[in-house]
Amino acid sequence: MIHLAMSDRWRDAAGILPEGLVRLTVLAALGLVVAVCATAAGLFWAAGALGEAPTDDVEHYGGGRRGVLAWADRYATTGRTTLEDTPDARVAAARDVQGRRALPATVAGARVAASRERPHGVAAYSVTVPEGSVTVTADEGPRGLVDWTLDDGRGTTLRWRHHLADRVPRVTLVDGHGTAWWVRRTSRTALAAEVPDELDPAAARVLVLVVDDQLANARHLRSAMAASGGGGD
C-alpha cells in the first residue's frame, strides 16, 4: 500500500492522491509501526524468559516464607526488609565509587560485605551474622555463567545460576530436595522472594541482598557493554 502511494499511477492531473488511498496508506504505516513494536516486545520477553530457567530439573515450586527488600527511592542507601513471621528491619547500604548503591550493607545485625575481584566480574561475598554461619560461594563457568550456593549453616542450601550480564526480572533457586524458589524484582527499588521456611532468617535477608547486588551489577555491566559495542558472552 505504501509502495502504491509513492508511485504516480494513482495520482490525478494535479498530482494529488485520492482521499481513500491516503487513508489506507496512513493505516498501513500505523500497522507497520505496531507490528515492529510488538515483535520487539516479544523478543525482549522471550530473552527474559530464557534467563529465568532454573539450574536443575525442578520438581515443583515451593510455597514458604515471603520476604521483601525495598529501598526508599532509586538513589537511596536506606530502606526496609521484611520477612514473614519476623520483625521488619532497617537496611543501610554503602555507595560505590560512581555514587551508586552497593554492598556492604547492614541489616538488623547481619552484615554483608562484598568485594569485587574484577571491576565488572564475579563478586566475592563475605557474610557475618549474630549466630551461626552463613556462606555464599561461587563456581565460575564458561561464557560468564556463575553457579552460586548459599548455605545457612543449619542444613539448608540454595543454589542458582546467573550470567554476569543477565538483566532478568527473576532468579530461580533450587534447594537440596530439588524444590524451586525465587527472588524477583518487582520495581526499580524493590525485590520480593519466596524462600524455604527452614532457611535461617538472617540467611534469607542476606540472599535477597546478594541477588539485588547481582542484578544491579548485571544492569551496569550490560549498559557498559552496549556503550562499548561489546557482546554478552
SSE order and pairing:
Layout (H helix, E strand, L loop, with lengths): L1 H5 L12 H33 L8 E2 L3 E7 L6 E6 L5 E7 L5 E7 L2 E7 L6 E6 L6 E6 L4 E7 L5 E7 L6 E6 L3 E9 L2 E6 L5 H28 L5
Radius of gyration: 24 Å
Strand-residue proportion: 35-45%
Which sequence of SSEs, written as H and E, runs from N to C? HHEEEEEEEEEEEEEH
The chain-level structural class is alpha+beta
Helix proportion: 25-40%
Q: Care to count the β-strands? A: 13
Low-confidence stretches: 45-57, 223-233
The span between the termini is 42 Å
Average of per-residue pLDDT values: 77
Largest sheet: 13 strands, mixed
The outline comes out as: globular
Number of helices: 3
Task: Kindly describe this structure.
Keywords: Membrane, Transmembrane, Transmembrane helix. The chain crosses the membrane at residues 21-47. The protein is of the alpha+beta class and 233 residues long. It has a domain at 15-52. The protein has three helices and 13 strands. The chain has helices at residues 2-6, 19-51, 201-228, and strands at 60-61, 65-71, 78-83, 89-95, 101-107, 110-116, 123-128, 135-140, 145-151, 157-163, 170-175, 179-187, 190-195. Strands 1, 2, 3, 4, 5, 6, 7, 8, 9, 10, 11, 12 and 13 form a 13-stranded mixed beta sheet that branches. A hairpin with a 5-residue loop joins strand 4 and strand 5 (101-107). Mean pLDDT is 77; it is low at 45-57 and 223-233.
In short:
The chain is α+β, with helices and mostly antiparallel strands and 233 residues long.
